[in-house]
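Chapter review: from sequence to fold.
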Amino acid sequence: MSLAHAYPRWEGDVAGAFIERLVMALQRRSHHVSMIVPGDSGVGGSVIQNGVTVRRVRYAPASLEMLAYRGHMTQALKSATGMACFAALLAGQTGAAIQASTDQPANLIHAHWWVPGGVAGWLAHLVVHRPYIVTLHGTDVTLLERSRIARALASTVLRKAGAVTVVSSFLAQRVAELLQDSPARFLVQPMPLDIGRYSRLSQGGGGVVTVGRLVAQKRIGTLLEAIARLRSTGSELALRIIGDGPERRSLEYYATRLGIADATEFVGEVRPEAIPDAIGNADVFAFPAAGEGFGLAAAEALMLGVPVVASRGGGVSEFVPPEGAGRLVDSDSAGELAVAIAALVDDPQSRPRAAELGGKLRARFEPDRVAAVFEAVYDQVLRGAV
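The token string follows.
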């Protein structure tokens, strides 16, 4: 049984798609996995989705079921209504996990994100005594930085878990610091990538591309400034921004102010299967986001053979190199970012090196290989070895 607050609601939905890849790989290895996830805008109940039993828990009137899938959970907790909805979601997932463990006994509960899934898994464990593990993805770690109460609750949830996994060494170190624990207690294992869609190689000539939700953390404004600097020196590099979000309008205005509106394309959100073509024959993939837990889009770009410039720190710096196939820069320095982009474009070896590195990432993040790692963790927990 697995608990999460994001899981694809329809074919091609990006919400929690990496969890679905893991679940389907586990099922290919003869594990039966059922999902317990929040309802969304009035849609609840149980369905069979790609061979997986998915139960969507209703927790509020349809107009208020907005906590999951949209990234609004932290903001919603600032209001009384949001808190009531969150409590109802937590109670609903806990109750569903208890019922599922009673009706069709599960050997183990795998909770994604320590809250609400991890808390629900812990509460269910207190009742049905099923072991549980927790996987931390990044946004839940950010919450620990903001709240002493969250740190106290998380410490209990993670201490009682049979195992805790994180998607990068960066997150393991950060969680250990926040909870005054040892990084060695957290197993680093990224989620699987959809490697089948990233088999073609970019031929170059497509300028600079970035992919991500248009929010402040992604530092798209810094990237716009870097492109403006390059254009001012005679570069003809254009920029494609794939993704949408609350900052889109202000970023479009900023591109106009910088004088690069004609060289900047805001593509908007695209379906997952269209991302490889949307990245196309990019010269460089830019990932200026600060403190990301992993950096999925950067890994996908490397699998396409596109050199990557990324911010230092965060999970992305664990696979983007400081030279050769990539460059690492200060997330707030448009100057560093511009220099790094130009260096990758001018280096004839950056593209073949990116393709070579991408091949290694493809093997490392292949879904069945990742599923085998989690299978071993499950076995150890069930034997009481973790």
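Two observations follow directly from the output. The radius of gyration is 21 Å. Residues 80-103 form the longest helix (24 residues).
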